[in-house]
Amino acid sequence: MPIIRTEHLGRDFRIGEEVISIIKQVNLSIEKGKLTILRGRSGSGKTTLMNLLGTLDKPSRGKIFFDNEDMTAIPEKKLDNLRRLNMGFVFQSVALISLMSAYENVEFGLRIAGYEASQRKNRAEECLNIVGLGKRMHHMPAQLSGGEQQRVAIARAIAHKPKIIFADEPTAELDTNTGLQVVKLFKELVEHEGITILMTTHDPNIIEVADNVITIEDGEVVYE
Ligand SMILES: Nc1ncnc2c1ncn2[C@@H]1O[C@H](COP(=O)(O)OP(=O)(O)OP(=O)(O)O)[C@@H](O)[C@H]1O
């Protein structure tokens, strides 16, 4: 059962006089409750595709269905709500607020998601425990390693119980072992929390951990 499905998805960019098709006629499905990796060379269109699927960018052509609802046909406000409630994002460079502790970063995310104060404390602590940072939740980001900071970002991304997490090169700034730990954590989240995760990477060690792999070449999905 796919959580996301696309039909003839395309995205063009105008560069000077020229219009270049960066994503071309992509038909893909992201399966619910799985860890899917989107892989491809630098410049193949991974980030562009991920931004379209996460509704951070608008397609030039085609449709994107989320839980069978056509996201390209719904009003902006409804789309904002759908994104806020159902999607979580993790980026390559960890975007934690440096003046807030790990706990405060996660709690703040819940505040933005509209959680009431009484629920925020428990859920923030629970998520920091899930990512293995229960004992360090009151550390400031600067007192945590790169891998630990990324785990705080993951705790923040899962806190509001999204259906899907989009992670764009979340291991790119980590050493191989730390990167592998982050992906193993993703795998646990998929298995134990029922979340769907789509992440981009070009690291072959990480690809082995995935349930599904989608390869993109020059803006097109290729199947082996
Ligand atoms: N806003 C934009 N305007 C013009 N061209 C763009 C824009 N965004 C991306 N591109 C181009 O689209 C192509 C694909 O970029 P994208 O960032 O999606 O690739 P990627 O596979 O994620 O690469 P990397 O692995 O290096 O992050 C690149 O050639 C890039 O220059």
Overview of the structural elements:
One of its GO terms (cellular component) is plasma membrane. This is Fe(3+)-transporting ATPase. It is an enzyme of class 3 (hydrolase). GO terms for molecular function: ATP binding; ATP hydrolysis activity; transmembrane transporter activity. Residues 4-224 form the ABC transporter domain. With 224 residues, the chain is α/β, with parallel strands linked by helices. The protein has one domain (2-99, 162-222): Rossmann fold. Helix content is 35%, strand content 28%. The chain is built from seven helices and eleven strands. The protein has helices at 46-53, 76-86, 102-112, 117-130, 146-158, 176-193, 204-207; strands spanning 2-15, 18-26, 29-31, 35-39, 61-66, 69-70, 87-90, 164-168, 196-201, 212-217, 220-222. A six-stranded mixed β-sheet has the order 7-8-9-4-10-11, with helices on both faces. α4 (117-130) crosses α5 (146-158). It is globular and about 50 Å long. The mean pLDDT is 91. Bound molecules: adenosine-5'-triphosphate (ATP). Adenosine-5'-triphosphate binds at residues 13, 15, 22, 40, 42-48.
Total domain count: 1
Lateral arrangement of strands in the main beta sheet: 7-8-9-4-10-11
- How far apart lie the N and C ends? 21 Å
Q: State the major sheet.
A: 6 strands, mixed
Number of strands: 11
Helicity, in percent? Answer: 25-40%
Per CATH, what is the topology? Answer: Rossmann fold
CATH architecture label: 3-Layer(aba) Sandwich
Counting DSSP H or I runs of 4 or more residues, the number of helices is 7
Ions, cofactors and other ligands present here are: adenosine-5'-triphosphate
CATH superfamily membership, which one? P-loop containing nucleotide triphosphate hydrolases
Keywords: ATP-binding, Hydrolase, Nucleotide-binding, Transport
Enzyme class: hydrolase
Protein name: Fe(3+)-transporting ATPase
GO cellular component, one term: membrane protein complex
